[in-house]
Amino acid sequence: MREGGIDLRDIEGQVWQLLVDEGIIQTGDVFVPLAGGRTNRVWKISGTCDLVCKLYSESTQNPLYENAPQSEYECLKQLSGKGVAPEAVCFMQTAFGDVLVYDYLHGTDWNNDVVSVAKLLARIHSEPVPQGLRSLAVGSDAVVMQTLDILKEVKPEDVDVIEALKPVGRVAGCEVLSFVHTDVVAGNLIQTTDGVRLIDWQCPGAGDPVEDLAMFLSPAMQHVYRGSVLTDEECATFVAAYPEKDVRDRYKHMAPFYHWRMAAYCSWKEARGLKEYGEAKLLEIAALEQVR
Q: What is the pTM of this model?
């Protein structure tokens, strides 16, 4: 059975029918799959209002990035009207998975304005932490323990290489936990006419703002999601544009630990057949060797 070009027997059709029944969309609205979603199924809904519909996968065994539908919804509600994220429309728990609908952001993928990203992150980090978010690894000891756990699940030939690069010293964690996105990659940054916005809030946490800075600056993640790494000048400009001096200073001390963890994570992804992470791993190791 088909209606509006959608097969009502498949999962897309079931989601479409649910949203129609709930009065969220109209029968003439069109579902178009969106590229870029690496964990969940995502569609753009074109109609009276342009929306995004996300159907969450049941689980994800990822050592760094959880897939938490309720947390994403809580984050979008917390950030409503702040001009940093899309506006949530509804969240539903259904027989075929959790479904989130939010406003579609018209714009382009972020490419090179690092100052705008630094200012955006500072605004997010100043917001109260929503209820129920997971606690992130804070301080060098916690990041080291997390990295060693990741290395238990990578190719044996990578373990010795990465373990040998373990940073020395210890860095204390922040005293107050902040609202952290954790997945600040180019694909999650949308340049709109009103400024840059951050999407995909499914793996947030209460932690150190430095984590978001490290993720954005990661050469591995810039390579995977943008196709090129940031220049040294762009990295320095980004850090200098972040307004909180204590965060900037802590990033400089924590950077080796985050590069090390990311190298291990790339090895973990590569071991699961994602070949682009092989080159990403080498880029992260090169960055680590520069700051050790």
A: 0.94
